[in-house]
Amino acid sequence: MKSIKIPKSLIEETIARIREAILTGELPLGSKLSEQRLADMLGVSRSPVAQALAVLKTEGLVEVYPKRGSFVYMPDARTVSELCEYRTILEAAALRLSLERQAPALISSMRAAVEAMTHASDNRDLQAYSHHDMEFHLAFLTHGGNRQLQLAYSRTISTVIGVRTHVFLTGSPHPVRSMNEHRQILASCESGDAQQACRLLEMHIHHLAEDFNGLAQQP
């Protein structure tokens, strides 16, 4: 008699739930991951949880140490700097393409994200702010018309989102600056100045690395 296999959809859902918990800060960077505790929280057995953690390890969201167990990833300063540099390259390329191909739709999406971010900031809803911040940046990919660029971005952006959420929830030292930078990028796009928009975008993304490193050095 063959054993009953766990449905693929259950494993995929388990992966998605744990990934979301990491990216929203529910499972903080560096925190220990207990398979049994996660299984109890999700109402599943340990098997899909173990498989989910293995997949998330390949995405860079989970780190496994012999005799110590599994942990949410915690990048060092150099890794965060490299992630930001990589993100800048992809997003700047996507932003240029979006302004060339679908500028009105891009600007509409960016405006909506900025309005939502402003509302979240006014209500001090950091998780909502982080979510709409991501919507702002994803607009570059959505309206660029390049599926390969979208695919590359989706495969690698999770670790950056986790870092950004960590900075927001730990206490970003420059929340007003972040909001203003998004407005400035939007204004440059509205005026059709792609070069200025990309310069502002690069500065904005690298501020994330600075903020992360600053928080890491706090006592």
Question: Which helices and strands occur, and which strands form pairs?
Answer:
Layout: H1 8-23, E1 32-33, H2 35-42, H3 46-58, E2 62-65, E3 69-72, H4 77-101, H5 103-122, H6 126-142, H7 147-156, H8 158-171, H9 175-190, H10 194-216
Antiparallel strand pairs: 1-3, 2-3
Keywords:
single chain; 10 helices; mainly alpha; Arc Repressor Mutant, subunit A; Four Helix Bundle (Hemerythrin (Met), subunit A); 219 residues; 3-stranded antiparallel beta sheet; 2 domains
Structural class of the secondary structure composition? mainly alpha
What's the domain count? 2
* Inertia-based shape: globular
The name of the CATH architecture of the largest domain is Up-down Bundle
Tell me the name of the CATH homologous superfamily of the largest domain.
Answer: GntR ligand-binding domain-like
Helix-residue proportion: over 70%
Helix count? 10
Number of strands: 3
CATH topology of the largest domain: Four Helix Bundle (Hemerythrin (Met), subunit A)
Radius of gyration: 19 Å
Spans of at least 5 consecutive residues whose pLDDT stays below 50 are none
Would you give an account of this structure?
- It contains 10 helices and 3 strands.
- The longest helix is centred in the middle third of the chain and has 25 residues, at 77-101.
- Helix 2 crosses helix 3 (46-58).
- 74% of the residues lie in helices and 5% in strands.
- The chain has 219 residues and is mainly alpha-helical.
- The chain has a 3-stranded antiparallel sheet.
Question: Can you give me a brief rundown of this structure?
Answer:
With 219 residues, the chain is mainly alpha-helical. The chain contains ten helices and three strands. Helix 1 packs across helix 3 (46-58), helix 6 (126-142) packs antiparallel against helix 8 and helix 9 (175-190) packs antiparallel against helix 10.
